[in-house]
Amino acid sequence: MSDAVSLWGIASAIGILTGLGVGFGALLGAVSERFKGDDHPLVEQIDALLPQTQCGQCGYPGCRPYAEAINEGDALNKCPPGGEATIQALADLLGREPAPLDGEAPEELQVAFIREAECIGCTKCIQACPVDAIIGAAKQMHTVIEDECTGCDLCVEPCPVDCIDMLPRSTPLTHWQPVISPAAGVFASDRTLAVRGAE
Amino acid sequence: MTLSFDFPGGIYPPERKVRSSQAPLQRATLPEQVSLPLRQHSGRPAVACVNPGDSVQVGSLIAKRDGLISANIHASISGTVTHVSGHDIQIESDGQDTWDTLAPLSWRDTDARTLLARLDESGVVGLGGAGFPTQVKTRVIVRHAIDTLIVNAAECEPYITADDITLQRYPDDVLEGAQLIASLCGAKQIIIGIEDNKPEAIAALEQAITRSQLASVTLTVIPTRYPSGSEKLLIKTLLNRTVPSQGLPADIGVLCHNPGTLLAALNAVRAGQPLVERIVTLTGDAIARPGNYWVRLGTSMETLLAQVGLDTDRLSGVVQGGPMMGETLDTLQRPVVKTTNCLIAATQAELPPGPQESPCIRCGACESVCPVQLLPQQLHWYARAQDDDKLARYHLFDCIECGACSYVCPSHIPLVEDYREAKSRLRHQQIETAKAEHAKHRFEFRQARLAREEAEKQARRHARLAQTKSPTSNNRADATAQPASTAMPSAAPQTDLRSLRIAQSAAKAAVRKAEKVLAREAQQAPHESHEDLETQLATARENLKVADLQLAQARENTQASTEESP
Q: Which fold does the domain A42-94 belong to in CATH?
């Protein structure tokens, strides 16, 4: 009886288990370090769902800061350009209740347009643009690069001569436009006739 | 050779080809004026290079290709340019029909580069319907080894007989065109796939093959079944090779060309004649003289149909292309373009409007006819529900839009319309996502640049401060600097320095990673633009500069404080 609970037996068991634990722990640690996957922290995932207009309507200076704020518990419904779809996607990701949008979603995509004849070259809009989509220099005419503009309208406010308009974004003919009416009666029409012919 | 394999599904719609295949090939009368759209091919529209008032001859270059996937456009009549816009060029005829052709080449003694340049100059595109530039298609040998050229003469759509007539009239030329393209892309064998409903074309081809005594050409007659002429299915039928999902035939060493394209390619090389006309099938019950016609590109459909005796009272609608995959035109004020292979002027009795759509009853009829083995009814549900993940899982993008499912649907659901819409929506979403990603990178770069500018300003201010301070600090303790350095606990600069050092090495690693990703992508796809990756690299570099500046400044601070403290 005393053999079974000998000190040596207990010590060796503890020793072996500890050794195994340390050994596997080290192995797992090494493997996780060696084969580290691309980690996407939650902030990145939230940021990916935001529309990246960088408009600041949420009260934060850009989409990334708002993503960080959402991660720390801020409300999901502060992004008007994203609209209901973004709120829903964020709610799905974070497992929170979707709330109605705080503000009004824009009806169409927009771009800024500078009426070049009126521009005085003050560079204020250039400093305001979050994506460097306006080119120009002091006392030179400025213009908006349409492809880079996100339509955030942050440049409209600082302009001292009000020469910036927000216009609907033009879509080239090659882009998709909603198909309103499916062509009537081309498909599945021969069949009826074929059946009639067979009869 | 008669060996052929099978593809699943398929349907047998009434062919109605006899009407247009009986009449001999004719020339349509020269149009008084033409309107040539700048986008008659897949890819980017061409860029106009003429001005209103310029006089042009048949074959004069009027619009140049823009970018890799695009094609030149030539004047199809001689006369004066009357109108140039962002969409089309209009030319008024002078009635002379004078030609401006390129120098004829003998393709057997000309090197491949000259031939490719000729195809490029001549604006030859695929005439089967997609309009993909032929020279780009031939250039795939840069990336893929091609062993087989398939001449797609199946022409499985009802009504259309343009390829049939082309083969009946010009079998030798089509064969020679096939040899030209095969020699350009290094294909060892040429297989002509043709449906068994074109006996005259088959006979003509057999004679042509015997005449040319080519061992590398085989003619395979396949059973008539829609949609056997779909590129992927034809490859499966002829070679028993399967094109991978969302892949290209070139991935498995095959190129497919339409007989009309081969003829146009040969004409461009042998006669120096750019693509200015094509064979169009004009058919339908509302036409008095149906048949195939050589038509100059840009001819208005209205005048063209009027020439062949269009009965406007009986006309119910005009379909461009075949009845299965074509589109119903809402106006006839449209020009014939490079991809117009057929115009069907249908009467009410011929193509009656489809019955009212009813709900799907899950009968599975569509599934059994789908030639690419998708589940059309599932796709239908998910397309209507806009469930994009499910659509991807059910391989929406492998749908060839053949219309077999809509044809057999007992509930008359326009299934293909749904798929087309869903596809366009998904493509649009992809574009928008890419745009958002792009904006994000530009925003990040701007933030990094502002941080760098701020750090530089700090550094300059610091340097100025140190300069003004240094001559005085030896003599007497500086009143402003002293409290600042003593106020900080001595451990704080050390930890600050350490975290800055970590930040700097992290920034360095980020730059290295961005460089590596950019280099890898640039190697994999050298022709594409990597603007976003370049922006990311620039952002990482800016961040590194900030970290460097901050670290240098912190080091100076600690040095100064250690010098002062003893």
A: 3-methyladenine DNA Glycosylase II; Chain A, domain 3 (1.10.15)
